[in-house]
Each structure stands twice: as C-alpha cells, then as structure tokens.
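Protocol step 4 of 6: structure prediction from sequence.
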Amino acid sequence: MYAYTQMNGLWAPILAACLSAAVTTIGIVVIGRFQYWAKRNSVHFKSFAAGMLLAVSILHLLPRAFSLSEHPSYFILAAFVAVYLVDHLLGGPGRDSAGRQRRLSGLIPLIAIGFHSLLDGVIYSVTFSFDTFTGFLAATGMILHEFPEGIITFVLVSQAGYSKGRSFVLAFLAAALSTPAGALISYPLVSGIDELVLGRLLAMASGALLFVGTAHLLPEVKKEGNAGSLAALAGGIALAVLLILIKGR
C-alpha cells in the first residue's frame, strides 16, 4: 500500500521535472540552430548568465540554505574552493594542449549547472510532497528560467571548444536530464530528507554557482564587455529577481 501511495504521488514532481527538462531542451535546440549568431553575441549571453547565476545564488539559494541549516557558510566556502581547485588542476600549466585545457576547464560550469539542476529535481520532490499547491508554485517559477538556462549551458560548452553535437549532448545531460533524474532518485527518500541536509546541499550549489559566475563569466565579460554586455548583465539580474518575486521566496 505504501509503495502504491509513493507511485501515485510521484507523477506530479516527475511531470514538473520533465516539463522543466523539455523547456531547457528547447533552449538548447534553438541556440544550437543559430550557433554563429550565438558565438557573435556570446559576450551578451555570458553577461546575462553571470547576472542570473549571481542573483539566483545570492538572493535565492543562500537565504534558503541559511533558513534550513546551521552554519551553511562552511559548505558554501568548501564548494567554492573545491570547484576552484578542480578548475585549477584541469586548466593549469603542463596540460597536453591549449585546446585540451579549454575543453576540460569547460566541464567546470557543467558540473555546477548539473548539480544545481539535480537539486531542482530534489526541490520538486520536496515541495510536491509537502502539498500540491506549494509544488505548483515552486515549479512555475523554476520552469520559467529553464529556457535561458538551456541557452546559457550550450553557449558555455560550445565556447569551451566542443563540437556542436557534443555540446548539445553535454548541455542536455547537465541542464535538462539531471532535473527529472534528481526528482526520480530523491522522491523515494523524500520522507526521510532532513532539512539540515537539504540546506547544506543548497549551500554547496550556491558556492559552485558563485564560482562559475565570478571566475568563469565576469572576467570574460569585463575583457570583451561593452554597453550591450552591461545591459545583458542587468537583464540577467532583473530576470532572476523577477522569478524570485514570482515564487514568493
């Protein structure tokens, strides 16, 4: 009977997570078909991504982490330093070639985005388990940001030197497929999820995304930047703030 109840309640978070993945995939496909345009305007996408990731981390993930767990700052710092060390080791001197360094370093934002998307799936499971209305409110806001997230992920991967086909596959796995995977994996365990653990995971996600925004994106935006990139940065921040206000969090 318990197993039936679990399966009966699973459809809502899985449906929301699959819709989220579909919207992300649409973003990946759209930008993939106009790759030349994307490369020509990559600085604007990087600016938009930096604004959005920083605002989401600071205004959404961090407050949630602090409200759910004690001393999340340690986990934020640990994730930031860990991602920095991995990035340094993959992209540091003595590697095979500049292209290999760039491709390996390009995996760092994928790891952060994939981890964040996986946690999105966990959040779907948690909120829908609380009640359907809460899950619906959370899903509405989260799904709205998936289209630009798909675009951002594809641009980040393609800028790292991967082919168009491989960029699509990597972006799909990291930004799209990871969300329903997170919901599917976490739902059977959701009744036993400790808020403390969830808060720490959110803290780690914010630390990783802060590294992506500050170390990967903002330096390139500053180097290539212009008035358009500044407007895109502001647009990313504005969209994140709007989504947070819509979610009421």
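Step 5 (inspection) to follow. Residues 1-8, 92-96 have pLDDT under 50 and may be disordered.
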